[in-house]
Structure formats: C-alpha cells, structure tokens
Amino acid sequence: QVQLQESGPGLVKPSQTLSLTCTVSGCSITTNYYGWNWIRQPPGKGLEWMGVIDYDGSTYYSPSLKSRTSISRDTSKNQFSLQLSSVTPEDTAVYYCAREVARTNTYDYWGQGTQVTVSS
User: Fold this and answer.
1) What pLDDT is recorded for position 59?
2) Quick one: which of 108, 110, 66, 82 has its CA closest to 8?
3) pLDDT digits (tens, 9 = 90+) for 28-60
4) 62 CB-near residues (< 8 Å, 6+ apart)
5) Which residue, 75, 114, 71, is CA-closest to 95?
6) CA 41 → CA 38, 47, 78, 101, distances in Å?
7) Phi-psi sector, 40: left (phi>0), alpha (psi -120 to 50), beta
8) 79 and 20 in contact (C-beta within 8 Å)?
C-alpha cells in the first residue's frame, strides 16, 4: 500500500520561505515512471498544481509559481520536498503531495494534506 504524508510548519510569516516534506512509503520515488507532485488548495478555491519531481529527478513547475518554487528529493529517505519563497497571505492553502502515473495527470495516491497559513 502506497502512503504519502506531508509534514512541515503550519504557520509561516510573510516574506519567509515555506518548506514542506512528503514522506513516501510503499513505493520508491525512483520507480519508473512515477512523478511526485505538490498541489495546493487555497480556501474557497480549486486545486492548483505547483510542480513535480519525476522518478529520474527531473523537475517541472507551474509557470505562475516557477520563480518562487523549488522541489527536491532525498532518495535515501524516500522523501521529496517543496520550498516556496517570498510567501504572502495568498499562499495560505492546504498543501498536498500526490503520486502521478507517467505524466498522465492521473494522481492515484495522495497525502492527507497539511494546512499552511501565512500570517504575521
């Protein structure tokens, strides 16, 4: 059974960097041909795809967030991480990590989500 679990601070101050980690069990993040995604949902809005790190370490980002987003991985811990810099209250959202099947936009496993609030 594949499981994903987000972790990180629930409160971040404006202008700081938001950092979250997704710990994966039941599947290696280097397994062909999965992509490991970050997706968020601001209050009252729909899901917003942020970016992905593929099984081979390649990364792709949403054009609207690319300048502030970095996704990395630690294969020894089977984890991947999100960093979002220069946050504002508009970055307040529930953040999810999710596994994607071979660039199909099909997300078959999700974490439970973690609330991040940007506030001073």
Assistant:
1) 97
2) 82
3) 999 999 999 999 999 999 999 999 999 999 999
4) 48, 49, 50, 51, 69
5) 114
6) 10, 5, 24, 21
7) beta
8) no
